[in-house]
């Protein structure tokens, strides 16, 4: 485990320019408002994950194609969701899903969800990423560890998700010292259960820890609440106005 410290970045990190990485809403027929909101001008989006059915699904979905097309026409990266199952998913299955995403939805890259974080798994992840980059020109690869991985992963992915979890953990989280060797554009934090009154605090944590991609939501996980990422936070306009150019009613 790398040594952790809360204040590695120092005061300069408060100037980190924040943008959103959206981990994936529910199907566009279930969450049409959410998908429509993402295409509104002025929203500081870095990328949006398209997760049709824990992957690309068995056949092309016209509703997902339309939603992805609107975002890509707006200049937003759309990433395909690939579940690595912490390294248990066969290489061939991942590549097959990647081809479907490219053929059906013209994605700009991929998010490798449940990506392993240990040193031993790095060669296989590197092999997968190298193959994915060969499929897409200028592919954007996000490694969804959800925790600080072995430092070598920073040389493999374009972005690393170094935190994914509840606000109760995030507000006391620490950052690995090795992350200070890389720019904030390389790191992403995904936090659920963030109360509206703590948005400023959550943004300060992201800046102090040197992560320029975030997604905060007041939705919660567990106890029958479903996936906290499937719907938009109740304070979406509020957080957009704090992070970007603002959303007008």
TrEMBL record:
Pfam family, one: Spherulin4
InterPro entries membership: Spherulin4
Source species, domain of life: Bacteria
PANTHER family associated with the record: 4-LIKE CELL SURFACE PROTEIN, PUTATIVE (AFU_ORTHOLOGUE AFUA_4G14080)-RELATED, PTHR35040
Protein name (Swiss-Prot/TrEMBL): Spherulation-specific family 4 protein
Native species: Streptomyces huasconensis
């Amino acid at each position: 485990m790398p040594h952790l410290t809360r204040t590695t970045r120092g005061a300069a990190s408060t100037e980190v320019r924040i943008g959103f990485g959206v981990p994936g809403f529910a199907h566009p027929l279930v969450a049409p408002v959410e998908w429509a909101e993402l295409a509104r001008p002025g929203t500081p989006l870095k990328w949006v994950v398209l997760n049709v059915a824990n992957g690309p699904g068995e056949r092309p979905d016209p509703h997902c194609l339309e939603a992805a097309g609107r975002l890509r026409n707006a200049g937003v990266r759309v990433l395909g969701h690939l579940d690595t199952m912490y390294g248990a998913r066969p290489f061939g299955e991942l590549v097959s899903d990647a081809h479907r995403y490219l053929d059906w939805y013209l994605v700009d890259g991929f998010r490798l969800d449940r990506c392993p974080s240990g040193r031993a798994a790095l060669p296989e992840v590197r092999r997968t990423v190298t193959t994915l980059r060969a499929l897409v020109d200028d592919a954007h690869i996000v490694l969804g560890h959800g925790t600080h991985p072995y430092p070598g992963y920073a040389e493999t992915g374009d972005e690393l998700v170094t935190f994914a979890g509840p606000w109760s953990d995030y507000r006391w989280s620490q950052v690995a010292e090795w992350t200070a060797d890389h720019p904030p554009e390389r790191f992403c934090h995904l936090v659920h259960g963030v109360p509206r009154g703590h948005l400023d605090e959550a943004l300060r944590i992201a800046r102090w820890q040197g992560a320029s991609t975030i997604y905060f939501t007041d939705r919660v996980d567990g106890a029958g609440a479903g996936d906290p990422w499937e719907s938009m936070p109740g304070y979406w306009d509020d957080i957009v106005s704090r992070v970007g150019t603002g959303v007008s009613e």
